[in-house]
Amino acid sequence: MGILNVSDGPTWSSDLDLPEDIPRDTPEAEFSVTFLALMILSGLTVTTNSLILATFYVEKKLRTYNNCYIFNMSVADLVVGLLCMPILSMIHLFGSWPFGKVASILFMGFQNSILGVSVCGVVVVCIDRYLATFYPIQHYQGRSIHKATVVNILTWVSSFGVWMMVTSAWDFIKPTNLVISSGLSRPNYSLTNTASLLVFLLRFGLPFLLMTGLYIRIYIKVKNIGSKHLSKYFNREGKNGKGQAKSASQDKEKRSLGTRLRDKLGSKTSLTYDENTTVSSISMDMTSDEGTTKNLGSPETDNEHSLNGEKKSTNNYPKPIGLSGDDEDISTSKSNVVSKKPKRESRVEGRKAMRTMTMIVLVFILTWLPTAVSVTMYALAPGFYRTLNKSINLSEITRWIAFSNSLVNPLAYAMAQPLFRLTITRMLCRPRRKP
């Protein structure tokens, strides 16, 4: 049924054991609304994934480490819409599988393998986000585009290696003449409930448990980190408030002291001070009517003025910013700090990756859950499953719902990352002008 090709019972093929001298009927194509709907679904899948892949070509900002895994999943989903969906739609056009037994066995292996690449892609995204959350420094220092490319290649090699062996190689080594209701060759692993459940666990059960477990741990970790940052923020704000209140009281005290001194010394007295001024270092310049200058306060200020009231240039005055050697050292240190590479990914990048993972995990669960229910029903209550399958064609419905994962994934990327939406809008609404 469904992706696992579990049928409602063994059905013997009508053309596998016929002698070669007996002519065989060639199925005739008969157009149907179902075939049209499935072809539209295939076209939408190809269009959406092609747009996602085009954004990587147009917008260089999307070519990040995290998006390399999105690129890999988009390629797999494009192949599903470009090959698997149209070929499978031919069953509804011709009324049965029209390409023979060998092609049926190879197609079943290819179909399961390419779907496995998509599932492996989701698992890889979850594992990568787990490492980035719990081991941020090691993950950031070790990640690279080359590493992501190698991981993507391994998802294809492992998926095709496993599923071509389980589906196609087993059927070629031990061939049977059984077919399912759609005309496809019935694989050997579907002949027993135990083997069907093991394949289903490999297809959906284990990935689902792994994704769910990792996501829950990541969510708890991120939530705890957010709570710590929030508490630190409020503590810092409280300390800043106390510091500002203390600074305001000191400033008020200085101003009141300066006012009292000015009242005692006369109206022509000018008082200068800054935030770091203390009572012992307050200096006042009193200019008399005769133009002489008197200095009160620290004795060091006596050398800063001449008898005729003109200031001398001394080394005690601060130099303008940018001219002194100390300022050059400060600017150099600042440039070094700016150019220093970060030790972990930014919060913006982390939130974006978390949103993307949330969307693709949610889409995976929603599109593969009907298949999970169907397989469980077949294993626990086969009689009820066969009755239900004959009435509403449950296996076909769950199969295409699982295929729709390849259509919804690009929508999830666009919802999680606004740059995908902006790039697609720019490509569609603002085409490049010819020179």
TrEMBL record:
Polar residues composition bias: residue spans: 282-300
Pfam short name (any one): 7tm_1
Biased composition annotated in UniProt, kind: Basic and acidic residues: 249-261, 302-313
SUPFAM superfamilies cross-referenced by the UniProt entry: Family A G protein-coupled receptor-like
Record domain G-protein coupled receptors family 1 profile: where: 48-413
Tree of life domain: Eukaryota
Subcellular location: Cell membrane
GO molecular function: dopamine neurotransmitter receptor activity, coupled via Gi/Go; G protein-coupled receptor activity
GO cellular component, one term: synapse
Gene3D superfamilies for this protein: Rhodopsin 7-helix transmembrane proteins (1.20.1070.10)
Keywords assigned: Cell membrane, Disulfide bond, G-protein coupled receptor, Membrane, Receptor, Transducer, Transmembrane, Transmembrane helix
Record's protein name: G-protein coupled receptors family 1 profile domain-containing protein
